[in-house]
Design a protein that fits this description.
Elements: E1 42-46, H1 49-52, H2 65-70, H3 88-101, E2 106-110, H4 113-116, H5 126-142, E3 145-151, H6 157-160, H7 170-185, E4 191-196, H8 198-206, H9 218-242, E5 247-253, E6 257-259, H10 264-279, H11 282-285, H12 309-312, E7 319-323, E8 328-332, E9 340-342, H13 360-371, E10 378-383, E11 391-392, E12 395-396, H14 399-417, E13 422-427, E14 447-450, E15 455-458, H15 460-468
Parallel strand pairs: 1-2, 1-13, 2-3, 3-4, 4-5, 5-7, 6-8, 7-10, 10-13
Antiparallel strand pairs: 8-9, 11-12, 14-15
Helix pairs in contact: 3-5, 7-9, 8-9, 13-14
Length: 472
Amino acid sequence: MLKLKFLRFLTSSSSTNQKSLPFDQKPDEPEINVKDFGDGFKWGVATAAYQIEGGWNSDGKGESIWDRFTSNPGHVKDRTNGQEATDFYNRYEDDLRLLKTLNLDNFRFSFSWSRLLPEGIGKVNEKGVDFYNKMIDTCLELGIDPWAMLYHWDLPQKLEDKGGWCNRDIVDWFSDYTELCTRRFGDRIQHWMVLNEPASFTTLGYLSGMHAPQKAGLSKFLASVHHACLCQAEGGRIVRNNVKDSHVGTSFSCAHTEPQKNTLWHRKASDRLDVMLNRLFIEPSLGMGYPYNELPFIRKIDRFILPDDPDKMKFDFDFIGLQNYFRVTSKPSLLPFVWANRVKPAPTSEVTEMGWEVSPEGIYDIIRQFAKYNIKEIIVSENGAAFKDHLVDGRVHDLQRISYFKRYLHHILRAKAEGINVTGYFAWTYVDNFEWDEGIRPRFGLVYNDFKTQQRIVKDSGLWFQELLKRE
């Protein structure tokens, strides 16, 4: 199985001996005033179905690729799985009430495709529809605005058995699924996102094989990329057609890339990583085609392109969601295809538990980069950090996470002050959850979760947001 190590940092940790710096060693922190962001700025949290719902086979739900992947304990670092996760399926009412107390009025969730369509296509699971109806209605009753993500990595296993994202039929499968979601829920949801981080699920699932469905190889990767680009645009068109006054976007994992040295070879390596991390999906949607020049192997994607596809890949999204956690310093390497690799953060760098460098300036740089595409609206649809949280006397004093949020928000505001239309911020995530192949060890939540009892305890970072966003 092909193991492209440099790609793992997209969603997974890289090995490091560094330690997160103690709070009192951080530089002076900026003061954050919510009024500086403007009255219409959206504040919320982001979640994903497989990571929080649990109920993996409850009430008619079908198997997803992540159900299959985690059924082998060796695939997850701490040998856990998402079969229960945070049990949001049974606890959503209490969770949403608790979220409301934090003054975070926007809740980004994803539909579980296999909960709605156990076979991926065909017969609808009405109990799954009922769950989302009740959850959406609870949001609205509490004054929480629901933001729907159509696809967050949990493809029905029945569709993967037919080739998954490598099979062009997925454009039809995804269209039918989107039709179902928009027609059943579009009367109450205005804000929609089509795909969550397509660069991540295609690279890690179909190139390196590190994530579900554990496929590997260049041809599989390129097929999955092209079909995801087609679904991204077609999903946007269906939402716009079916949902009155829809606000439709899609989300990209992104990271500012810079060369380790100011040499031609280092700059070219940085450009190649930039294609993989930041440009591969946005440019086709804008009608620019695939970025062949900096990364020649992408030209092999032409074998999957039909004559009308360049137009079918285009869609004028209302907004683009940017999901940023770190920057990338790059150097040339012998790793195939991209011939570049990430440079590990220096030993003196501040890093999260995932081994990711804390680099607040990076979010400013990547927002500016995407703004050059003349995007109508940018929303930071994920940003957050995992640290080693400790529950002491019923409290979690996660001062590092608060510092992280302050500094990243400062640089988001910096971009906004320069005239870039950044209209929202979604923290990753509401509650400690199941973090894919990392398991339950990394804690990103504003709320601490005891996975044995499912007890929720608001961390100091959650209380910080509560205070920041309090109504006067």
